[in-house]
Amino acid sequence: MVASTTAEASAALHKALENHEYGIIIITQDIADLIRSEVDRFMFTETFPLIVEIPNRSSGGVSRDLKALVNEAIGVSL
To answer: Which helix (H) or strand (E) holds 57?
Structure first.
């Protein structure tokens, strides 16, 4: 799901958390910053699913491969 506002980001996070089949939720840092209190509250009180923050794909004007960003963030090659 793509979100660009605080309300959209919050709704997307809650929708993802409702699906108990998700083991990892990946969120970009700028979107996580929009809903920082919600992300932090969940990250520090729950153990599952894992929430992973990744940089934007086009951070600093350079486009990066999404798979490489995820691999780097979780330390596992997908």
So the answer is: none
The b-or-e profile of 8-22 (16+ CB within 10 A means b, else e) is ebbebbeebeeeeee
The lowest-confidence range among 30-39, 46-55, 67-76 is 67-76
Per-residue pLDDT tens digits for 40-68: 988 888 778 888 888 876 655 555 666 77
CA–CA separation, 75 vs 50, rounded Å?
Answer: 13
Q: How far apart are the first and last CA of the chain?
A: 20
On whether the CB atoms of residues 38 and 10 are closer than 8 A, the answer is yes
Is-contact 57 45, C-beta < 8 A?
no
Strands (DSSP E) contained in 1-78 are 24-28, 50-54
Residue 60: CB atoms within 10 Å: 8
Which pTM does this prediction carry?
0.71
